Every structure is written in C-alpha cells, then in structure tokens.
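User: Please predict the structure of the protein below. I'd like the answer in structure-token form so I can feed it into my own downstream comparison script.

Assistant: Understood. Taking the following sequence of 431 residues as input:
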Amino acid sequence: MQIKLSYSLDTKPDHLIIPIFSNDQFDDTLQQLATHTGLDRDKLKEDFKGDLGEVQMIYAKESRLYLLGLGKAPRFADVLKSFRSFSHKYKSRIGKNIAISWLYSNEPTNLPRHIEAAINGLLLGTYQIGRFKSTKAEVHPLADKGASVQFLLTEAMGAGCEESAQRGIAMANTQMSTFDLVNAPSNKKLPIELAEWAINSGQKHGFAVTAFDQKEIKAHGLEALLAVNRGSEDPASFIIMEYKPNTPGDYKKIGLVGKGVTFDTGGLSIKPSINMHYMKSDMGGAAAVFGTLEMAAKLQLPVHLIGIVPATDNSVDAKSIKPSDVIGSYSGKTIEIIDTDAEGRLILADGINYMVKNYSPEILIDLATLTGSAVRTFGYHAAALFSNNDDLAERIQQTGDDNGERAWRLPIWDIYKDCLLYTSPSPRDRG
C-alpha cells in the first residue's frame, strides 16, 4: 500500500473519509465541513452525532464522503477499531484509492497517533479467514497491490505523520501474518513450519534465529518438551530468536517465552470433543512472541529481545505420556504427570529454564493460551496477568488499555503454593 500526504484543500477524491470528534468543538467542525462542501449544517447535525464508530455517507461535489465518528476523546484502540470496522463493512463501496481528510480534526497533538491507528485499522479490516478454501473470496480493494491512501492535512499537521502511517502499515502486516498462523489448522503449521516462519522473518527483518530439531532437543536435555511430543507423529522444534538494535548501547534485555502447541487434544486426559477444533490456536503465545520479535526488528526498537518458542502438538498415541509418569526436564527437576492436558506448563518449564540459564534476562515474560479459565473469567476482552514486579505489571496494563490489548492482574500470593503442590486441574480448567 502506498501512502501520500497532501496539503491541497482542492483535492476531490472519489472516496473521502472524514474523521469527526464529538467533543466541545463538534458544532464548529460541522459548520466548517458544511462551508467547504456546500451542505446544510443543521441537516448534518440531525443525521450525524460523531459517536464512536458511527458512519454517515453523503455525496458532495462529485465525491462520496464518509463521515466517521471517533467519539469525544478516543484512545488508539478506539480509532483503530472504528477504521477497521469501516474497512470491513464498506469494502464493497470503496475503491483501492481512498483519501482521509484530517482537515477537520481538532486534536492536532494526537494526530500522528490517530493516523497510525487509522491505517492499521483500515488494513486489519482487509483480513479474511478461509485462507485454505478452494474457492477464494473477493479481494478487499485495500488489499490490492496497487492500493493507496492519501492523507489530507495542513502543512502544520504534517510533522511525523508519514512515519506514523508507515508504522501502522508495518504493524498490520505483522499482525495479519500471525493471524494466519493462529487460524491455520494444525496440519498446515507443523512445529517445523513454525520454525521456518521464524527463520524467514529473521532473514527478512534482521534478527537471529536458531531452531533445534529433535536430535538437538534431546542433546540439550529439553526432556519435558520431548515428553509432550512423544504422542506426536511430527517432531518437536525449539526456536530461539534474538534481536539487538544496530547501534551499540546499554539496552535492557527482555526474554519472551511463548507456548507453541500446534494442536492440543489433551493427550490421554483427552478434552471434550465439542470445542476441540479451537485447539489449533493453542500456539497463540508463540505467535505473539513471533510478532513481537518481527516488529521490534522492523521498527529498530531500543531493546534487546530474546524469544523462545518450544513447539509441538499434544496428541494421543501408545507412546503418549500417562498420568502418574515421572519425566525429566531441562532444569534437572523431575515432574510427576497427573493430567496430560497440562502440557503447556511442561514445555514452558523447559523454555523458561533454558532462557534463564543461557541468557539471564532482566525481565522474563511468558505468553500462553494456558487455560480456558481465563476466558471464563474475562471473556475475550482481556488476558490474565500474573507478575511479581509491580512496576512492570502496571506498565503492561496501561499500555494494554491504550492499545486495546488489555490485561488484568491476578494475585500470586504465597498461600497459593499449597494449592499448586497438592491439587491438579479439573477437566474444565485444563489448558
């Protein structure tokens, strides 16, 4: 997609999106719009209130205008969601060349951030599931290789806007690539294919990737990962990614470990069949780590990142681990298996211990679709966050609130250690 900034007030594109804020300057904004378009302000106000996500289509001076409401004081996630919804719902009406006029914006200080959210949302609205269908859906106009978006601005508004737009494009492309991973059926994303995704991304964007095969996994003593993989016809993979900025400096070292279970049957402690097809997405933590490393490299963020993804499926076979088995692990500790559907904890144990022993990160975060209890607690609107670092937890929550990736902190009091030692997950809570 091509991006262009235009400072001409005389531009008359065929499809023009005009974001409108419903703040205390809303009436003045409508008056300004009416003056430039020849429309009646009072009639505009009757039909359009500027509420978040509201769309009003009108014709003026040979152009089709879409008034897009952004509410009073939208956050990044609000702007993104509004443009994403518009892109999806109006894909049959817009062309591949559109313009967005910010000439009526009365929030110039937030404009670069709004532009990033807008272009991110427009592109995410082009995403379509059904990647492996034999009959392909019609391509969204903005997903066409020749698509372009023109931003109409005053020269005073222009500072930083093009950079923000390019960042929004880069983010959307990485997001959609990880969407493809999460949505793919397990036979289309074997552990070795996750490794190939990481290797290709590293080569393209400039970060180091090493992937251990089955023989190397065994040689390194990653016994918990091997134990989970015993029931699978496909070998496991242990993926290590490292991103460092190009310029020297004293960068904070952060370790990310993502659960990469490409399909989770539950093993011998098998899951109910009714929703088992969703278990193709049990590598969502891995996808998040992949996306984070790729975006850090794209944007050359000033941070030293190490990402580790232990990847396998959890299947049923004569060789599968059984409840009461005792297995080894990378840390040297033995583990008694009570429920084979708690496989995520096993592979993460190896991933986390490998990270600590070999990289000693200052901050360590693991990401996992570890239990359905999180969805039952928060729905699909927030992740469960556990941390022993108050400052880190607060910053994650604040960032998540702004970007629409919410996390809610839950306690990890010492009193819970007794529960961890002497209880096993119920059939409903396994993950």
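That's the full token string. The first strand starts at residue 2 and ends at 6.
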